[in-house]
Amino acid sequence: MAIIPYALEDCVHVCLATKRANSGSILLGAAEALRETLRAPLPPADQERYQQGCAAARAALGEQAFEAAWAKGRTMSWEEAVAYALEQTE
User: Fold this and answer.
1) Domain region containing 25
2) Count of domains for the chain
3) Which value, to the nearest 10 degrees, does the dihedral of the CA atoms of residues 25, 16, 19, 78 take?
């Protein structure tokens, strides 16, 4: 189960690369919430890439829209987040 946040975070970058910052922001929130639930913090080696994704999503959406999408992602179960990520990256 600990691999799921990594997979979600990889999907974030797919979303950002394909101009779907809202979807990427939702997945950022979902991945962070799952990491908290699993007590599996993001390793220091992955912090820079994560921060770059957050910055790109914020820049694309604006702060308010980013925060709203991120909050939406935090409400998802891991099953919902995985299904959403699969939909967004097909």
Assistant:
1) 4-88
2) 1
3) -50
Q: Which of 41, 29, 18 is nearest to 71 (CA)?
A: 29
pLDDT digits (tens, 9 = 90+) for 72-90: 999 999 999 999 999 998 7
**Rounded distance between C-alpha atoms, residue 90 and residue 60, angstroms:** 21
pTM beyond 0.70, yes or no:
yes
Sign, CA torsion 33/42/83/68: positive
Instruction: Express each pLDDT in 38-77 by its tens digit.
Output: 999 999 999 999 999 999 999 999 999 999 999 999 999 9
Token pair belonging to 52 = 């770059």
User: How far is residue 10's CA from residue 85's CA, in Å, rounded to a whole number?
Assistant: 10
C-alpha dist (Å) from residue 24 to 5, 8: 13, 9
